[in-house]
Amino acid sequence: MRPNKATHQQTKIHNRDLVLKTIFDHDTVSRAEVARLTKLTRATVSEIVAHLISEGLVEEVGYGSSIGGKSPILLSLAANSRYLIGLNLAQDKFIGAVVNLRGEIKDLVEFPIHNLDGEQALQLVYQILDQLITKGYHPLIGIGIGTPGLVNTREGVVVNAVNLDWQNLPLAGLLEAHYNLPVSILNDSQATAIGEYVYGNDHQTDRNLIVVNVKHGIGAGILINGRLFQGDGGGAGEIGHVVVREDGKLCRCGKYGCLETIASAHAVVLRYDEMIQANPAIYSSLKDTQIDLAAIETAFQQGDPLAKQVIYEAGAALGASIANLIGVLNIKKIVLTGDMARFGEPWRQFVQTAMMQSSFSRLAENTKLEIGALDFRACILGASACMLLDDYSLLFHLPTE
C-alpha cells in the first residue's frame, strides 16, 4: 500500500504545482482557464485553488468578462505572501535585495568592495543579509546568491572565485546554519540567465536561451527546455577563460589570451588606456585623464575613433566565441547582458557581425541576438527565482519565527 500512497501524494503535489505555475504565469486567470491549460478537471482545480487561497498564496481579485452565464472569478498570485533574498556579488560592489513572488524588489542595500580578502568578503555577505533580514519582511523563505567563479550548486560550494579569494568555500552551509533558511548558490552568469529568462523580454518558459554576461569577467548561462544546464561539473558556460588569442595577454586564471582579456569591460578599459599612453602626441589631452568605462562610453557616443576601435575589437572577439556556442548548442536566442551592454546597439551589431562571420551560416541566420531587459537586477532576481523554478515546496514549509 505504501507505494500507492506515495504515488498518490506525488500526483497531488504535481497537480498543485501545475496549477500554481499556471497562476504564476498569468496576471489574472479564472479557474476554468486554469483547468483548460492544465488539462485537470474543474473539480480538481477548485480543490487545489481553495488550498492555495487558504495558504495565502492565491487571491480572488475580481470578475472577468462573461461569454454567457456568470462572470468568472479571477485569480491572482498573492505577490507579497512570501519573500526571498537575492544577492549579486558583483565585481565592484555587493548588492542584496528582498524580492516578492512577482520579482518586485521591495528593499535593496549595496556595499562597495575594495581589495577584500576572502574572510572580509564573507563578513560583508553576513552584513548585507543581517540588514535585509531586519527590514521586517515576513515570511522569508530562502536566500539565493549569484557569485562570480566556479560553483558547485548541488553542494552549495564556491569552488574558486579568484577576485573574492574564495576556494572551496561551503557558502550555502555556512549561511543556512547562521540564518536557519534554505540557501542556493549559483554562478552569477547562470543566475543572470535565470533572471532574464523569467523576468526579461517575453521568453517562452519551455524554450531554450543563452545569456552571455559581459562584465569584469565573461560567462554564459544556458537554459534548455526551461531548465538551467550546468554541465557535469557545474561550469557550463565558462567561456571567459577559453583561449582565443595564443599571443594575448596574461589572464588572471594563469593562461594567455583568454576571451576575458579582450572582450570584457575590464579589458576594454585597459586597452583604451594603453592606446592613449602609446600615442601621447595624438591623445595628449587624455594622457592624464582617469579612464573608466563611463568615460569610454561618453567618448564612444561622441564618435571618438579610438573608442570605436576598442569596442569593435571587443565585440568581434565576443562574437567569434558566441559562434562556438551556436555550433555546439544551436540555440536560436542569445541575450547579451552586463557592463558592456551600455554600448548598446552598435556593440550588439559588432558582436553579431563577428558571430555571423564565424558561424555556420545556416545556423547563425536563424539565431536572434539581443540585449537584455534587466541590469544588475537580473542576477538578484535569478538567484532568488532559482529556488522556486523546479520546486514550490519552499512556499509551503514556512520557517518558524
Summarize the structure.
This protein is 41% helix and 21% strand. The protein has 401 residues and is an alpha/beta fold. The strands form four sheets. Strands 6-5-4-7-11 form a five-stranded mixed β-sheet, with helices on both faces.
In terms of quaternary structure, the protein is: single chain
Q: Biggest sheet, in brief?
A: 5 strands, mixed
Q: Which stretches of 5+ consecutive residues score pLDDT under 50? A: none
Instruction: Write down the Rg.
Output: 23 Å
Order of helices and strands: HEHHEEEEEHEEEEHEHEEEHHHHEHHEH
Strand-residue proportion: 15-25%
Tally of helical segments: 13
N-to-C span: 37 Å
Mean pLDDT: 90
Helix proportion of residues, in percent? 40-55%
- Strand arrangement, major sheet: 6-5-4-7-11
Spatial shape:
globular
Counting helices, strands and paired strands, the structural category is alpha/beta
**Record field, number of beta strands:** 16
Write the layout of secondary structure elements.
Elements: H1 2-24, E1 29-30, H2 31-38, H3 42-54, E2 58-63, E3 73-77, E4 83-89, E5 93-100, E6 105-112, H4 118-133, E7 140-147, E8 150-152, E9 157-161, E10 166-169, H5 171-179, E11 183-187, H6 188-199, E12 209-214, E13 218-224, E14 227-229, H7 260-263, H8 265-278, H9 293-301, H10 305-329, E15 333-337, H11 344-358, H12 361-364, E16 368-371, H13 377-389
Parallel strand pairs: 4-7, 7-11, 12-15, 15-16
Antiparallel strand pairs: 1-3, 2-3, 4-5, 5-6, 8-9, 9-10, 12-13, 13-14
Helix pairs in contact: 1-2, 1-3, 2-3, 6-13, 8-10, 9-10, 10-11
